[in-house]
Amino acid sequence: MPRSVNAVASKARKKKVLKLAKGYFGRRKNVWTVAKNAVEKGLVYAYTGRKIKKRDYRSMWIVRINAAAREHDLTYSTLMDKIHKAGIEINRKTLADLAMNNPEAFKAIVDKVK
After folding, report:
1. What's the burial of 110, exposed, middle or buried (CB within 10 Å: 0-12/13-18/19+)?
2. CATH code of the domain containing 76
3. CB 65 within 8 A of CB 77
4. Which of 3, 13, 38, 100 has the fewest Cβ atoms within 10 angstroms?
5. Nearest alpha carbon to residue 60 among 113, 103, 99
6. How many domains does the chain have?
7. Using CA atoms in the order 63, 65, 71, 75, what is the torsion angle rounded to 10 degrees?
8. Which domain holds residue 42?
9. Are the beta carbons of 100 and 61 closer than 8 angstroms?
10. Does the pLDDT of residue 111 top 90, yes or no?
């Protein structure tokens, strides 16, 4: 009995991977085995990159809040402690946005917690 290889499915699978490898340099874009490895590695980097992006944004917000807080003679940690003790529920993203784009509102929050 002849061997069944299901060429339709394997061709579609290769086509999908080679489409993802579009734009890669050299053999990574058109040789099946090389492209398959490059795409798998790229998808791993994409997954971890989505996690790292969240960390980077949070650290950027903290730096901005700290810089704005020091203009009002506070450090980041003391400001956040006083905000939590005052019962003001505001997240770091919003606080950093206020510090950058609306210094008057940020100053009002600092004055309220001082």
Report:
1. buried
2. 1.10.1900.20
3. no
4. 3
5. 99
6. 1
7. -80
8. 25-113
9. no
10. yes
For residues 74 and 110, the answer to whether their CB atoms sit within 8 Å is: yes
Whether 86 is in a domain gets the answer yes
**Tokens 């997954």 label which residue?**
47
Q: So what's the pLDDT on residue 14?
A: 96
16, part of any domain? no
Place of tokens 């949070």: 58
Answer for the pair 113, 79: CB distance below 8 angstroms, yes or no: yes
pLDDT in tens, 9-19: 999 999 999 99
| Any domain includes 19 | no
Cβ burial of 3 (10 Å; 0-12, 13-18, 19+) is: exposed
Summarised one tens digit per residue, pLDDT across range 57-84 is: 999 999 999 999 999 999 999 999 999 9
pLDDT digits (tens, 9 = 90+) for 79-97: 999 999 999 999 999 999 9
Q: Which residue has the tokens 């086509």?
A: 15
Q: Quick count: other Cβ atoms within 10 Å of Cβ 35?
A: 21
Which residue do the tokens 């394997």 mark? Answer: 10
